[in-house]
Amino acid sequence: LDDLAGGMTRGEITIIGGRPGHGKTTFTVNLIKGFVENGKKVVLFNREMTNVEMMKKLIALESGNLSYNMIRRGIFDTVGLAELESAKKKIIEKYSENKFAMFDNLKDFGSSASEVKKFKPDVIVDDYIQLIRPDNPQEQRRLQLESIVNNYKWLAKSTGSCAILVSQLNRALESRVNQRPMLSDLAESGAIEQVAENVWFVFYDYKINFARSKVGANGIEIIGSKVRYGNSGSIKLGFDGDKVKLYNTIEEFKEARNAIR
């Protein structure tokens, strides 16, 4: 991913786009885990998901053995409860309040910017920008999104942060024969595309073409459609949605699964 993107730089914006159920949040959570493990301070704005649900995903990811579905339903045996407690302790230590902060109760950009200036993160993650309440509700939606993305650009520059903004895609792609996402599929694409240095799409082919998928249920594709300082292209990663886990390759996922067996 670093080779594809040319690395992320402070003061710049990366957009992550995808349709519901294609793994955007899983991809985002794995990025956050990597940032924190590399000593970066991260702030996360949960616009759609609650902090509680995001914490369940972090528990599943950090555990490696508990499934997200199991955690959501609260179904644990003795071994599972011990694993849960172990994951909680790991999270308390790794995602301490001076390294990681997340909010699910901020509706507008201004209140989010205030928290960024207080916390001084290396990385800002916003999931997702279409749910930010606009300053002027009477404006055209295109102008509202343009204002939000431009404000994020200036916030990233003024605070020396890297901003990762999750975006929904238009439903129009679902009516196409080829449903691989492209830049024009971004909701209000012109406003978003112009400002961002990177635009990545998360594409889970199995969700659409489960009978004909070339990568299968445990493969996900990250498509770099706009990469200002790297190379556009795509990479295939191993994907375990219920464990909220991505692997560097599909082969790596298979090796991990066989090792558990």
Question: What's the short version?
Answer:
The chain has ten helices and nine strands.
Coarse morphology: globular
Q: Distance between the terminal alpha carbons, to the nearest Å?
A: 29 Å
Approximately how much helix is present in the residues? 40-55%
Structural class: alpha/beta
Order of helices and strands: HEHEHHHEHEHEHEHEEEH
Mean pLDDT: 88
Question: Would you give an account of this structure?
Answer:
The chain has 261 residues and is of the alpha/beta class. It has ten helices and nine strands. The protein has a nine-stranded mixed β-sheet with strand order 3-2-4-5-1-6-7-8-9, with helices on both faces. A hairpin with a 4-residue loop joins strand 8 and strand 9 (245-247). The model has no long low-confidence stretch (mean pLDDT 88).
Helices, strands, pairings?
Blueprint (H helix, E strand, L loop, with lengths): L1 H4 L7 E6 L5 H14 L4 E5 L4 H13 L4 H6 L4 H17 L5 E4 L5 H11 L3 E5 L13 H19 L2 E7 L20 H7 L2 E6 L1 H4 L10 E9 L5 E8 L4 E3 L2 H11 L1
Can you tag this structure with a few keywords?
9 strands; 10 helices; alpha/beta
